[in-house]
Amino acid sequence: MNFLILNGSPKKEGLCHSVTQEIIRGAKDGGAEVSVLVTNGIKRCHCCGEGWGVCFAEHRCAFGDDGFTGVQKAIREADALCMITPVYWAEVSEGLKCLMDRLRRCENPFQGNVGSLTDKPVLLAAVPGGSGNGLIPCLDQMNRFCQHTKAVVFDHIGVNRWNADYKRAAAYAAAKAMAEGRKAGESCPADSQGG
After folding, report:
1. Most buried residue among 56, 74, 156, 157 by CB atoms closer than 10 A?
2. Cα–Cα distance measured from residue 85 to residue 138, given in angstroms and rounded to the nearest whole number
3. pLDDT tens across 174-185, in order?
4. Predicted confidence (pLDDT) per residue in 28-85, tens digit
5. Dist. CA 130–CA 144, nearest whole Å
6. What is the DSSP letter of 13?
7. Could you give the C-alpha distances from 5 to 25, 84, 191, 192, in angstroms and in order?
8. pTM for the model
């Protein structure tokens, strides 16, 4: 399995980094090949034409030579994704937001199209810093992106300073389960017997 992590954090240390490391470890322990793309260099959507450019019809960005085309190709080739971001002002980081805006246009599943995110499992992780605030709206923002692109949310992981000890373990376990092939909505093996 090709497991791709889209990392919205500009930092190389800290809480978001430590959660990313657990996701990497979990996916690798589950048998996946893991790669990480940091989204900070992605530029905003230009909304060319009258709001829709070649992105709608051709599923590519007219300005993709800024690195977006390579990221889009990596996403298309991935079997599973993780989107992880620090929480800024109750939203995803600016780099991840720019990527999400452009992907939403280029990978649209409208009018019978099937985008490369359609039915792809995605683990969503949001990591608020000092205050711990903004976690739920940030996860909701990522969840809406998955609804728009028809990606399948495998799990939502929210990590802050107060729950990091057990949420890092949850991030590891979720990535490992995805890499081992568990599908969203499947009961875990221990609970398959019921009651």
Report:
1. 157
2. 9
3. 999 999 999 988
4. 999 999 999 999 888 887 777 777 777 777 778 777 788 888 999 999 999 999 999 9
5. 25
6. S
7. 12, 7, 28, 29
8. 0.91
- For 83-125, the pLDDT digits (tens) are 999 999 999 999 999 999 989 888 877 666 677 899 999 999 9
The helix, strand and coil proportions of the chain, stated in percent and rounded to the nearest 5, come to: 45, 20, 35
Q: What tokens does 12 get?
A: 């190389």
CA 126 to CA 132: how far, in whole Å?
A: 10
> Would you tell me how many other CB atoms lie within 10 Å of the CB of residue 89?
10
Long-range pairs for 61-68: beta carbons < 8 A, 24 or more residues apart: 61/102, 61/105, 61/106, 66/41, 66/42, 67/41, 67/42, 68/42, 68/43, 68/99, 68/102
In order, the DSSP letters of 129-162 are -SS-TTHHHHHHHHHHHHHHHT-EEEEEEE--TT
Query: Do the Cβ atoms of 134 and 87 come closer than 8 Å?
Result: yes
DSSP state of 23: H
DSSP per residue, 38-75: EGGGPPPP---TTS--HHHHHSS-TTGGGTHHHHHHHH
Q: Which two tokens stand for residue 2?
A: 């090709």
